Amino acid sequence: MTQHLPFANDRIAVVSITRHGIALAGHVVAALPGARLFAPEKFAPEAHAAAPGAAACYAGKTAEQIPILFSNFDGIVAIVSLGAMVRLVAPYLVRKESDPGVVVIDEAGRFVIPMLSGHLGGANALAGALAHALDATPVLTTASDARQTLAVDLLGRELGWTFEASHDEIVRASAAVVNDEPVAVVQEVGSADWWPRHANGRNGPLPANLFSFSRLEDITPERFGAVLWISHRPMPAELAPRLAGKRVIYRPPVSP
User: Fold this and answer.
1) What pLDDT score was predicted for residue 1?
2) In terms of Cα–Cα distance, which of 3, 8, 58 is closest to 34?
3) pLDDT tens sequence across 117-162
4) What is the DSSP letter of 249?
5) Radius of gyration of the chain (CA)
6) How far is it, in rounded angstroms, from Cα 54 to Cα 42?
7) CB contact set of 57 (below 8 Å; sequence gap of 6+)
8) CATH for 87
9) How far apart are CA 32 and CA 14, in angstroms?
10) Can you tell me the distance from the alpha carbon of 59 to that of 43, in angstroms, rounded to the nearest whole number?
């Protein structure tokens, strides 16, 4: 698979509750070597045939499996109707920074829909990878992906960057990007190819509302709705008050 995933395949659970869905689940597991198939016990023969050595069958209700899957996997692929999956996971949602990425696929294998934790949980990346493997259509509804612009909480992840920001700062910066407010991208260190390697991949020029700088001191913070600063430096004391609430700091790995 060409799409970079933020977790290993053995951290992915594939869930199907119908005979036809289990056949499709076999293709999903084949595309994600190491993933596990979970199916009702009554379909054990079909499950073991679809995913030899990778099937686990359970007694009881599927709803009883959800907290177990949430605790033990980072990604969940459900060949279940979207509405049914919403009802199944709703009691166990905590926060997007920790909930697993959940992807729903229709039984015909036509559409792959990231349902939960699209960015930080990796559901969008997983959906993109599965859509490619199954020749299906990914249905990405997050604003940054729908508009092919920058996802603030994913910038540099494929390059090993980490970020420092509060939840409110991420929300404010993300809103500035998708609402076409001017956003300063200040890159002092790190690889410069983050745009084509960003999230599900981006083509073409940077969006017109993103302005590039090479030093933080070169910007006038008040001109921008958000400032994305890629650096190894501590925040300059004289700029900290002017950037409060609207800056996201990215930390690329330090070269040995």
Assistant:
1) 41
2) 8
3) 888 788 988 998 999 999 999 998 887 777 778 889 889 888 889 9
4) E
5) 20
6) 17
7) 38, 39, 40, 41, 43, 44, 47, 48
8) 3.40.50.11220
9) 10
10) 10
Six token digits for residue 200: 């599900």
Token pair 């016990």: residue: 41
| Distance from C-alpha of 81 to C-alpha of 240, rounded to nearest angstrom | 48
Specify the pLDDT at position 195: 87
The answer to whether 12 and 37 are in contact (CB under 8 A) is no
Residue 226 burial class via C-beta count within 10 angstroms: exposed 0-12, middle 13-18, buried 19 and up: buried
Reading the block at residue 6, the tokens are 């933020």
Is residue 2 situated within a structural domain? no
Nearest residue to 102 (alpha-carbon basis) of 62, 74, 133: 74
- pLDDT per residue as tens digits for the range 196-234: 777 666 777 889 999 999 999 999 999 999 999 999 999
Q: Are residues 31 and 121 in the same domain?
A: yes
Do 162 and 240 fall within a single domain? Answer: yes
Give me the helices (H) in the chain, please: 19-31, 44-50, 66-72, 82-89, 123-134, 143-146, 167-178, 240-243
